[in-house]
Design a protein that fits this description.
The complex is a heterodimer of chains A (485) and B (232). Chain A has 485 residues and is α+β, with helices and mostly antiparallel strands. Chain A contains twelve helices and twelve strands. In chain A, helix 1 packs antiparallel against helix 2 and helix 2 runs parallel beside helix 4. Chain B has two domains: 123 residues, Rossmann fold, CATH 3.40.50.2300; 95 residues, Arc Repressor Mutant, subunit A. Chain B has eight helices and twelve strands. In chain B, helix 2 runs parallel beside helix 3 and helix 6 crosses helix 8. The chains are: A alpha+beta (485), B alpha/beta (232). The interface between A and B is large, with 40 and 36 residues.
Chain lengths: 485, 232
């Protein structure tokens, strides 16, 4: 700031010799006061255009002095005999001031436009850079670097809320808390005087992060509009990288899932026939008999274990199958009680750690659904419960009637699902944070249950609290017509 | 051991399973022939008179279902038991449509398999009952000539459709009857797929025939396949 004042003083001092030079030329040419006035007008206008209003007005005062002294009667006196000269001088000064003012304004406007154009160009360059950013790498660090470069800023800090990550660039420093606070309070902030801007990054009306911009004191600051534009470009870049990431992750897991299903399917089928042979042989031995007690015991063991292996194979096949492309629903009458018993029987082999309780509040009820899929869905829920329940804790499978609907519920103790997770767990491939290490799974089972419920105009949801555990509910409409009630 | 348990042809491509079945069924008194695929089976059947065929559904070559269809065109009454895997109800239905009498799901217990085979052979050996003869199963007696049904000596009033359905099921007692087959028998060949109609019809029939329609002892449901009337 001090620099600009000394510059201004220099210019004021420089205007004196200019006025003097014009005076010498005009006096040498024996110009009349009227002509001399016009000759003075030129340099003053140039000063107004080139240096500014203040310089021009000081020069104009000097010019009026010279006009008075050298060109009006009596010469070489500041005193003027003719009152018309007074009027002429005053109007000269007024005209000069007005013209200088206009010229100054014009110049400022031109500068402003130039500056704006420059910033628009920078914004354009930045948006082009953003499009070319490597979407596979973390986009934040590169983004802040480019903003600092393009706008010649002191510091830029970018808070990515989804990744909970802060990226900074530039020589200056913006405290991390400050940037995070912008996001959490969702409030913009401008300190135009020292060139600091705070912006929430919005996509539509959704906040996805925050950015802090600090201008360097020795360079011109950006304005609020530019800050807005930078913020929306940054938001766009972040959102773009997020959606790209989500997309490629989903694609990758879909592919690996397909491969897994195919391998599983092949293996399970390859296991089936040898298992049938083992079971045929062992049950055949028991049937042909008579065996000694020890032989009988051992053959029974072989038979049981072959049965268990074949159940495991069936289960593996089931997982491979439910991820098949689409659900084709073949509705039929399904009786609730036998279905529950069927499930219980099937579970008794592989739920070795947990006991499955059956509780049916309806004895003679049928539902009109795809029985095979319903069984798969309920098995999925029981399986899921067994994965997350406390070891040895019982699992309860219950069927009850609520109005015209049959509600199945599967309850287990010892697991808790946070409220924000309760919708997400039904998403395909979603695995709640930390669950990867707790239980094996693919994130397919529950999404299948949801697809099943939707295909039957039913509903599935979960209730959970730390003390009583987790309950999954599946509601389907009961048979209205039919034979069972 | 009764050596007259029956002459059975085992058609199975997996040699280990075939050997197991041959050894076990041989020890249990069946007279066993073996074939590794459908073509071989058809060849053997031209030379030996079998009383039942145990036919694997998944085989290389012409496959179990096509083999079943070809056997059925030559031997109209010969019992065919299909060996299927669990969770393949569509295959089971297709096999039954192709003329199979029954199916056994792999892996199976030998006891279940032999029980199914014995009852199939018994039916095969019994002289074909003239269709005018009353059928008696348990406490249910159906008289086709007078279109009358009695349970525990009490007349049961059935609608014509119910009577036809019951008659068809009782004539095929012990064997699964697919939805499509039952529908065709009741309404002609062009009415497949209307299971809701069958569900209601069988529901009504159960209310009249069964002691407890929620827990039927005569008309049993074969999940995803169809219905099966209890055997004698």
């Amino acid at each position: 700031m001090a620099g600009s004042w000394s510059k201004r003083l220099l210019r004021v001092l420089a205007s004196a010799p200019i006025v003097a030079l014009v005076t010498v030329i005009a006096y040498g040419a024996h110009a009349k006061s009227f002509v001399a006035g016009f000759i003075y007008l030129f340099p003053i206008m140039l000063i107004a255009f080139g240096w500014g209003f203040i310089e021009a007005s000081i020069a104009s005062v000097l010019a009026v002095g010279c006009l008075d002294y050298f060109f009006t009667e009596p010469l070489f006196h500041f005193y003027m005999s003719d009152p018309q000269d007074w009027i002429a001088l005053i109007s000269f000064e007024a005209i000069v001031l007005v013209v200088s003012r206009l010229a100054d304004r014009l110049k400022r406007h031109a500068t402003e436009v130039g500056k704006q154009r420059e910033q628009v160009e920078k914004l354009y360059l930045m948006s082009r850079d953003i499009l070319l950013l490597n979407r596979r790498a973390a986009v934040g660090a590169e983004l802040v670097r480019r903003i600092v470069e393009a706008f010649d800023l002191d510091a830029v800090s970018l808070w990515d809320a989804r990744e909970a990550r802060l990226d900074t660039a530039g020589t200056g420093f913006i405290p991390e808390d400050e940037v995070r606070a912008i996001y959490f309070h969702q409030r913009h902030g401008d300190e135009a005087v020292n060139g600091r801007f705070k912006r929430v990054l919005l996509v539509g009306s959704r906040a996805i992060g925050a950015i802090g911009l600090a201008g360097a004191s020795d360079r011109p600051f950006i304005d609020a509009h530019t800050a807005d534009a930078i913020a929306s470009l940054a938001a766009l870049a972040l959102e773009r990288s997020h959606s790209f990431k989500a997309e490629s992750e989903a694609e990758a897991s879909r592919q690996s899932e397909q491969l897994r299903s195919a391998v599983l399917d092949g293996l399970a089928h390859a296991f089936k026939t040898p298992l049938a042979t083992i079971q045929g042989a062992s049950s055949g031995l028991l049937e042909i008999g008579p065996l000694g007690p020890v032989q009988n015991e051992l053959v029974t063991l072989i038979n049981q274990e072959a049965l268990r292996l074949s159940d495991l194979t069936t289960q593996a096949l089931r997982t491979a199958k439910i991820d098949g492309d689409q659900l084709t629903v073949n509705k039929e009458e399904v009786r609730v009680q036998p279905l529950l018993e069927d499930i219980s029987e099937q579970c008794s082999h592989h739920l070795s750690r947990h006991h499955l309780h059956l509780r049916s509040e309806i004895s003679n009820k049928s539902i009109w659904v795809d029985g095979r899929l319903l069984k798969l869905a309920l098995l999925e829920l029981v399986d899921n419960a067994s994965k997350y329940a406390d070891p040895q804790a019982p699992i309860t499978l219950c069927a009850s009637l609520t109005g015209a609907d049959v509600t199945f519920s599967v309850r287990n103790e010892g697991s808790y699902i946070a409220p924000e997770e309760r919708l997400r767990i039904f998403r395909r491939f979603y695995r709640s944070p930390g669950s990867q290490y707790r239980a094996p799974g693919t994130g397919i089972g529950l999404s299948f249950v949801k697809r099943f419920a939707e295909a039957h105009s039913g509903n599935v949801w979960v209730e959970s609290d730390c003390e009583s555990g987790t309950i999954f509910f599946l509601t389907l409409s009961a048979c209205t017509q039919g034979d069972s009630d | 051991m009764n050596p007259l348990n029956g002459r059975v042809l085992i058609v199975e491509d997996d040699s280990a399973l075939r050997r197991t079945l041959r050894t076990t069924l041989d020890a249990l008194g069946f007279d066993i022939g073996e074939a590794g695929n459908g073509e071989e089976a058809l060849q053997r059947m031209r030379m030996v008179d079998y009383e039942a065929v145990l036919l694997d559904i998944n085989m290389p070559g012409i496959g179990g279902i096509e083999t079943c269809r070809r056997i059925r065109t030559i031997f109209t009454r010969l019992p065919i038991l299909m060996l299927t895997v669990r969770d393949s109800e569509d295959d089971k239905v297709e096999a039954l449509e192709a003329g199979a009498d029954d199916y056994v799901t792999k892996p199976f217990q030998i006891r279940e398999l032999t029980a199914r085979m014995r009852s199939a052979i018994r039916r095969f050996r019994a002289p074909e009952a003239p269709s005018a003869m009353p059928i008696t199963i348990g406490e249910v007696i159906l008289d086709p000539v007078h279109r009358r049904v009695r349970r525990s000596g009490i007349d049961v009033r059935l609608t014509p459709r119910e009577f036809d359905a019951l008659r068809f099921l009782m004539e095929h007692a012990g064997r699964p009857v697919t939805y499509a087959r039952l529908l065709t028998a009741l309404r002609g060949s062009d009415s497949v797929g209307d299971r809701e109609y069958l569900r209601v019809l069988i529901g009504q029939l159960r209310k009249k025939i069964e002691r407890n329609s929620a827990n039927p002892e005569y008309i049993l449901t074969d999940s995803y396949i169809g219905y099966r009337f209890r055997e004698v």
